[in-house]
Write a structure and sequence with these properties.
The complex is a heterodimer of chains A (about 300) and B (about 325). Chain A has helices spanning about 5-15, 20-35, 35-40, 70-105, 110-125, 125-140, 145-155, 155-170, 175-180, 185-220, 230-240, 250-280, 285-305. Chain A has about 300 residues and is mainly alpha-helical. The longest helix of chain A is centred in the first third of the chain and has 37 residues, at about 70-105. The model of chain A has no long low-confidence stretch (mean pLDDT about 85). Chain B is globular. By secondary structure, chain B is mainly α. Classes of the chains: A mainly alpha (about 300), B mainly alpha (about 325). At the A-B interface, helix 5, helix 6, helix 10, helix 12 and helix 13 of A face helix 1, helix 6, helix 7, helix 8 and helix 11 of B.
Chain lengths: ~300, ~325
C-alpha cells in the first residue's frame, strides 16, 4: 500500500515543501468547514439571534451583522456557495482552455490560426468590466449565472499556455512514434499528450479558482449579485452598505474578507507548488541552501593547493 | 513594419468586437432597456430624448444591419447621447472629465508596480534560496489573494478615517482651482497616495512571480555561464544579461495584467471616491444608466488596447529580431 505510485508521488510532493503543506491544510480545512456548515454552526445563517452589530463574544464567536445574524454561521454557509461558484467556474474554464489549447497546439495550421485569433481577442478584453456590464444588463444575477459568465470569459490565458506546451510535446519523439505506429489522433491526444499537461492544467484550474472567487466577491460587492443568497461576496456587500467600518463593526467586513483571503491564499500556495512540478527549476526551499553549502565546500576544496 | 501593421489590424478587430458586444447585449436581454431606462428616469426625461436613446442604443427603425451601421457611426463620431444620471449632460463630456484621473491612477500604479516587481523578482531569482527568494513569493501570493475592495477599505479605514493622514474623498481639494500651481499639484498627489498604494498592493505580486520565473529559465542559459566565466560583475550579469532577456516573456503577460489593473481601478475608485471612470461606472450601475455604462466599458477596452500597444512597442525595442 505504501509503495503505491500515488502515495509515493504525494510523499515526494510534500516533503520539505512548507508552502504545499500549509496550502493543502488551509484549502482542505476551509472546504470541510463549509461543507459541514450546518453541523458546526449552531445558529441558522438567516435567523435573527442577537441585537445588531454585537462584537465577537463567547456566544457569537464572530459577532453579529447589522440585522443581528450570526456572522460565524453566515461565513460557513456562505462559503459553500462561494466555493461552488469558484470550482464551477474553474471547471468550465479548464474544459474550454484544454479543448481550445490542445486542438490549436496539436492540429496546427488553419485550426491553430483561427482558434488563436479568437483566444487573443478574448484575452485582450478586460474580464471584470465585461462581467459587470453583462451582470448589469441581466439584472441581479444568482451564483449559477455568475459561475457561468466567469467560466465562459476567462479561459483565454489558459488556452494559450496549454497550446504552447502542446506544441512542445507534439514534436517529441514519442508522439512521432505513436503517429508512425498509426495510433488515432484522439488516442494520441488523450493518452499521449494530456497526461503530460496535467500539472499545467491543474495549476491553471487553481489560478482560475482564485480569480473566480475574487471576481464573484467583486461583482457581489458592487451590488450585482442576488443579495438574498448568502455568499462571501454578498456578506461584503451588506457590510459595505451598512457602513460596517465607519460604525466600528469591523468584524462584519473583515470576516468574509479574511475568509476569501485565507482560502485564496491557500490555493495560491498550493498553486506555487504545482508550478514547481511542471518546472522544477522554480523550486524554493531549504534544499537550495544545502546545495549552495555543498557547492561552497567543493569550491573551497578546489582552491586549496 | 509588418509587426506594427499586424498588431494594428488586431486592435481594430478587437475594438469592433467590443462595439458589437455593446450593440448585441441590449438586444439579447429580456424586455427593452430603453423602456427600463424611461422608468428609471422617473418622468424627468422628455419623449424626444427617449427617441434619442433608442437611436443611441441602435434601436432605430429599419433592419438589423442598418441599426448596426448607425450604432458604429455614433461611436466613431463620438456622439454617445446624454447621460441619465446627470441628464442632459452628454456622456462624452462626463467621460472627458474622468479620463485623466483613471489614466493617472492606473498608469502611475502600473509603472511603479512593474518597476518594484521587476527589481524584487530579479533579485530573488539571482539569489536563489536567500531570504527574499524564500519568503517573497509566498507572502505576495497571500497578499494577491486578498479581495481588493476589502484591502482598500481596510487601508481607507485605518489611514484615512481613523488616523486622518490622508483625505477621505475626491481626487484633489475641491476648494482649489485646477491648474499647475504647487498647491493644486501637491493636493492631487496627496489624494492619490492611498489609491495608488492599494493598486500596487494588488498588482505587484504578479510581476514578481512572472519576473522570477522568467529569470530562472534564463539563468540556466549558456550565455550566463559565459558571462560569469568572463569575470563580469554580478550586477552586470543580473541586469544586462539575464534581466533583459527575461523581460520578453514578462512583457507578453501585460495584456492579462492590464485587465486586472482596470478591474482594480473600479473597486479602488469606488472605495476612495476617486473621480475616475471606475467610480463613474459604479455610479452608472446604481442609477441603471446604460449609456454611461456602455461608454465606460468601451473606454476601458480602449485603455487596455492602448496599454497593449505600449507593450508591443516595448517588445519591439527589447527584441531586435522583430525590427525588420
Amino acid at each position: 500500500m505504501l509503495s503505491h505510485p500515488v502515495i509515493k508521488f504525494l510523499r515526494r510532493f510534500y516533503r520539505g515543501n512548507t508552502a504545499a503543506i500549509l496550502g493543502s491544510l488551509i484549502v482542505v480545512t476551509v472546504i470541510i468547514m463549509s461543507v459541514s456548515a450546518s453541523l458546526i454552526a449552531e445558529n441558522e445563517p438567516n435567523k435573527r439571534v442577537a441585537r445588531g452589530h454585537q462584537p465577537p463574544s463567547a456566544e457569537l464567536w464572530l459577532g453579529s451583522t447589522r440585522s443581528g445574524k450570526d456572522v460565524f454561521s453566515q461565513v460557513l454557509h456562505g462559503g459553500k456557495i462561494s466555493l461552488l461558484v469558484a470550482f464551477g467556474a474553474a471547471v468550465i474554464t479548464t474544459v474550454i482552455a484544454v479543448v481550445v489549447g490542445v486542438s490549436a497546439g496539436y492540429f496546427g495550421g488553419r485550426v491553430d490560426e483561427i482558434l488563436m485569433s479568437i483566444t487573443n481577442i478574448v484575452l485582450v478584453f478586460p474580464q471584470l468590466p465585461l462581467l459587470i456590464i453583462l451582470a448589469a444588463f441581466l439584472g441581479q444575477v444568482g451564483p449559477l449565472i455568475i459561475a457561468l459568465i466567469i467560466g465562459l470569459s476567462s479561459w483565454a490565458w489558459g488556452a494559450r499556455v496549454i497550446r504552447s506546451q502542446t506544441m512542445t510535446i507534439r514534436n517529441k519523439e514519442f508522439i512521432l512514434a505513436a503517429e508512425v505506429m498509426g495510433e488515432s489522433k484522439w488516442r494520441i491526444i488523450f493518452v499521449e499528450i494530456l497526461p503530460n499537461l496535467i500539472s499545467i492544467v491543474v495549476g491553471g484550474a487553481m489560478g482560475t479558482c482564485i480569480y473566480a472567487l475574487m471576481a464573484e466577491a467583486g461583482l457581489e460587492f458592487l451590488g450585482l449579485g442576488d443579495p438574498t443568497i448568502i455568499t462571501w461576496g454578498t456578506m461584503l456587500f451588506w457590510a459595505q452598505s451598512n457602513a460596517a467600518f465607519i460604525v466600528g463593526a469591523w468584524w462584519d467586513m473583515v470576516v468574509p474578507g479574511a475568509a476569501i483571503a485565507i482560502f485564496g491564499g491557500g490555493l495560491a500556495l498550493l498553486n506555487m507548488s504545482i508550478d514547481q512540478i511542471s518546472n522544477p527549476k522554480l523550486k524554493t526551499g531549504s534544499y537550495i541552501k544545502t546545495w549552495r553549502r555543498m557547492k561552497a565546500e567543493v569550491e573551497a576544496q578546489r582552491l586549496q593547493p | 513594419m509588418n509587426f506594427v501593421v499586424r498588431r494594428f489590424s488586431f486592435y481594430f478587430i478587437a475594438i469592433m468586437v467590443a462595439i458589437t458586444f455593446n450593440f448585441v447585449i441590449p438586444r439579447l436581454m429580456p424586455g427593452d432597456p430603453v423602456d427600463a431606462l424611461f422608468a428609471a428616469a422617473q418622468g424627468r426625461m422628455p419623449l424626444e430624448t427617449l427617441q434619442a436613446y433608442k437611436e443611441m442604443l441602435g434601436f432605430v427603425d429599419g433592419p438589423m444591419w442598418v441599426q448596426y451601421l448607425k450604432y458604429i457611426k455614433s461611436i466613431f463620431t463620438w456622439d454617445l447621447g446624454p447621460t441619465i444620471m446627470l441628464y442632459p449632460l452628454p456622456v462624452t463630456e462626463l467621460l472627458a472629465v474622468k479620463v485623466p484621473w483613471t489614466v493617472g491612477l492606473a498608469g502611475m500604479s502600473t509603472v511603479i508596480s512593474i518597476f518594484i516587481g521587476l527589481i524584487i523578482g530579479t533579485y530573488a531569482s539571482y539569489h536563489r534560496g536567500g531570504f527574499v527568494d524564500r519568503f517573497m513569493p509566498g507572502f505576495w501570493a497571500f497578499v494577491g489573494a486578498m479581495p481588493q475592495p476589502v484591502t482598500a477599505l481596510f487601508i481607507f479605514f485605518i489611514l484615512a478615517l481613523s488616523w486622518k493622514w490622508f483625505p477621505l474623498s475626491y481626487g484633489a481639494n475641491p476648494d482649489l482651482d485646477p491648474g499647475l500651481t504647487w498647491e493644486y499639484v501637491s493636493s492631487v498627489l496627496h489624494h492619490a497616495v492611498l489609491p495608488i498604494s492599494c493598486m500596487i498592493l494588488g498588482g505587484i505580486g504578479a510581476w514578481i512571480f512572472n519576473m522570477r520565473n522568467a529569470m530562472i529559465n534564463v539563468l540556466g542559459e549558456d550565455y550566463i555561464t559565459m558571462a560569469k566565466a568572463k569575470g563580469l560583475s554580478h550586477g552586470r550579469i543580473m541586469t544586462h544579461y539575464a534581466a533583459r532577456n527575461a523581460l520578453l516573456p514578462v512583457v507578453t503577460a501585460v495584456s492579462m495584467q492590464i485587465g486586472f489593473v482596470m478591474a482594480g481601478a473600479i473597486f479602488i475608485e469606488t472605495v476612495f471616491n476617486y473621480p475616475g471612470v471606475g467610480l463613474l461606472l459604479f455610479k452608472a450601475l446604481g442609477s441603471r444608466d446604460y449609456p454611461t455604462m456602455q461608454a465606460c466599458f468601451l473606454l476601458i477596452v480602449v485603455f487596455v488596447l492602448v496599454a497593449n500597444f505600449i507593450a508591443d512597442l516595448l517588445y519591439l525595442w527589447l527584441d531586435p529580431r522583430l525590427r525588420t
